[in-house]
Every structure is written in structure tokens, then in C-alpha cells.
Design brief:
The chain is of the alpha+beta class and about 325 residues long. It has eight helices and 14 strands. The chain folds into two domains: about 150 residues, 2-Layer Sandwich (Major capsid protein gp5 fold); about 140 residues, 2-Layer Sandwich (hypothetical protein PF0899 fold), CATH 3.30.2320. This is PF09950 family protein.
């Protein structure tokens, strides 16, 4: 009598969904920084947000002197919007996958589920990487930018770091060629540009993973305290949320062209929802097709729909370039 074929169980579906939907630490970097706006319906193909500015002023008058000229405070509202983008990744589950899972359950060795955790984790990670990429860099299709990102939003404040390190040319900008005091001056200069108007406050610093390592060098006049330790011990003054590491600020990914090189950088940001928000129309979910008896498989995909980032006040974002570099091939 032929052995009965294994089936796709409810437990398999529940495990797959939970494993994919639950992010690991530091995967959703962009979501850890800015507020998420979920007002856009999942069926939409574009989003619209309302941008509100306060209007009016306050009157100062001498006590005892009456005036009918008191100004009234109001709001000036306008609508802004952009496209939505679908991010998806998936895999097949075959009859062989199910049979192997059943064999593992019977033997008590190995995972009882038909898809290895590595594939589930990779599915989630690929989507998270694309989400971060759209938020930070926007999206370019066919050589044309169809969506702005945080790092290239029109109107943000940007400049090169000081060329005061050792070496020549672009080497003078690199954090690895600077002493702790020079690195601190770069951070303070960016903070001064962000906060100089009195309207914004630096909440944190997005920094490349490699650049972060150069903060571990000791400061010569601080009893072996590293630059990072000093900054974190004074983070309420510098930026309360500290440093958020991301490979999206590496020269290879950022691709800011300076001469014959790509350069990376760092980004200071005000995290107020008045400055920027992430637009999520449909959060990450897992969908399954019915089992196909003819082909002997089923498809599973993870999918989300986002609008990337929407920056209301570009002056609340400051970019600095030149901290790391790679040759353009």
C-alpha cells in the first residue's frame, strides 16, 4: 500500500507567517527613526499627506494701552503626495519539502517545518533591505529618479566634512585619517547647521558601519575614553538617540560622486513627525496560494506596500559627505 503523502499543515502556515513578519534587531532601520503614517488605504496606488504650517503672530502692547490690532493665529494647509511601491519576495513549497519535514518529525531530528529558517529569514531580510533602500535613497527606474529618499531629498542641508585629516585629496575627508578632535568637530559642525535656526533639534546620527568603528579610538586627553564613549556620555547634549548604524551610508551604497571616487557620509536628523514620516499603506504580510495538485507545489510570498519617506521640512535633515570612500570602477 503506497505511503500517504505529507500535507501542508496549519502549524506550518502559522510558523512561516510568524518567522517572516517578526523582524530581527536592526533590520528595519528606517522605521526605528521616524514616525510611521498608516493613513493611506492598502488599495491605493499613491498617497496624499497634509502639510500644515502655523500662521499669525503675537502682539506686544504697553499695559494700559488698548489695541484692536491683535493678530489671529491659524493654519495654512496644503496637500502633497507621491507614488506607492510594492516590495515582495517569495518561494515555493514542494511535495518533497513536505515529505522531508514529515520524515524529520517522525525521527525527532531537525526542523518539523517544510521550509528552513534560513530561507524564511532571507525573505524577510531582502524585503527589509529594499524598504530601507527606498526610504534612504528613493528609487530610480531606467536611469530616472521616480522617488526621492531621505539622503537625496530636495532642500536638505548637505556639505563635505572638513578636509583636515592626514593624506592628500579625498584622503583628508576620511574619518580613518582624522583624530578624535577632528571627528568631533565634524559632528558639531553638522549639529550647528541643523540647530542654528532654533527650529530643529538633532535627535540622532545615522552612520556607516565602518565609520562607526573609528569612534572607538581613545581621546588623548580623556584618560583613554573613546570618542564614542564621550559622545554617548554627552548624548543628551549632542543627540539623545545616539548612533544608528547602517550600510546605506557606505560609499558603495550611497554613491555620492566626488572626483573619481564614490564617498559615504553621515546624517543628523530631527525625528519629529513635522520633519518627516514613513508612509506605509500595507504592512508586511504573508500570502499563500492553494496547493496545486497538478504541479505538486504551492507558492508563498511576503509583500508590503510603502510610499518610502515624505520629508515635510528638509532643513531638519543634515548630510555630511566624504567620511569613507571607494574608487569608481
Amino acid at each position: 500500500m503506497p505511503q500517504a503523502q505529507a500535507i501542508f499543515r496549519k502549524e506550518d502556515s502559522e510558523y512561516i507567517q510568524k518567522r517572516i513578519i517578526t523582524p530581527r534587531t536592526n533590520e528595519l532601520v528606517a522605521r526605528s527613526i521616524f514616525s510611521v503614517n498608516t493613513d493611506t488605504p492598502s488599495y491605493a496606488h499613491s498617497y496624499t499627506v497634509e502639510h500644515v504650517e502655523n500662521t499669525g503672530s503675537a502682539l506686544v502692547r504697553e499695559s494700559g494701552v488698548e489695541s484692536d490690532d491683535m493678530p489671529f493665529v491659524g493654519e495654512k494647509a496644503g496637500s502633497q503626495g507621491d507614488k506607492l511601491f510594492v516590495i515582495e519576495a517569495g518561494f515555493r513549497i514542494t511535495q518533497e519539502d513536505l515529505d522531508q519535514a514529515e520524515a524529520r518529525r517522525q525521527s525527532g531530528r531537525g526542523s518539523e517545518y517544510p521550509i528552513r529558517d534560513r530561507r524564511l529569514d532571507a525573505t524577510r531580510q531582502f524585503i527589509a533591505e529594499q524598504e530601507n533602500r527606498i526610504v534612504f535613497h528613493g528609487l530610480t527606474v531606467g536611469g530616472k529618479q521616480v522617488k526621492q529618499g531621505l539622503f537625496n531629498w530636495k532642500g536638505i542641508l548637505s556639505d563635505m566634512v572638513a578636509a583636515n585629516g592626514s593624506g592628500s585629496g579625498n584622503e583628508k575627508y576620511l574619518l580613518k585619517n582624522k583624530n578624535p578632535d577632528q571627528i568631533l568637530l565634524d559632528l558639531i559642525d553638522a549639529k550647528a547647521q541643523l540647530e542654528g535656526s532654533g527650529k530643529f533639534k538633532a535627535a540622532g546620527c545615522l552612520i556607516d558601519d565602518e565609520d562607526y568603528m573609528w569612534l572607538l579610538r581613545p581621546m588623548p586627553l580623556q584618560n583613554s575614553m573613546t570618542t564614542l564613549q564621550w559622545l554617548l556620555s554627552n548624548k543628551e547634549v549632542m543627540f539623545p538617540r545616539g548612533f544608528i548604524r547602517t550600510k546605506d551610508l557606505s560609499a558603495k551604497v550611497l554613491k555620492k560622486k566626488v572626483g573619481s571616487n564614490y564617498v559615504g557620509g553621515f546624517c543628523l536628523f530631527d525625528d519629529s513627525p513635522d520633519v518627516a514620516e514613513l508612509i506605509i499603506a500595507n504592512d508586511l504580510e504573508v500570502r499563500e496560494t492553494p496547493w496545486d495538485n497538478f504541479d505538486g507545489n504551492m507558492k508563498v510570498k511576503a509583500i508590503e506596500k510603502i510610499g518610502g519617506i515624505h520629508v515635510y521640512n528638509p532643513k531638519g535633515i543634515v548630510m555630511r559627505y566624504g567620511t569613507n570612500t571607494v574608487n569608481i570602477v
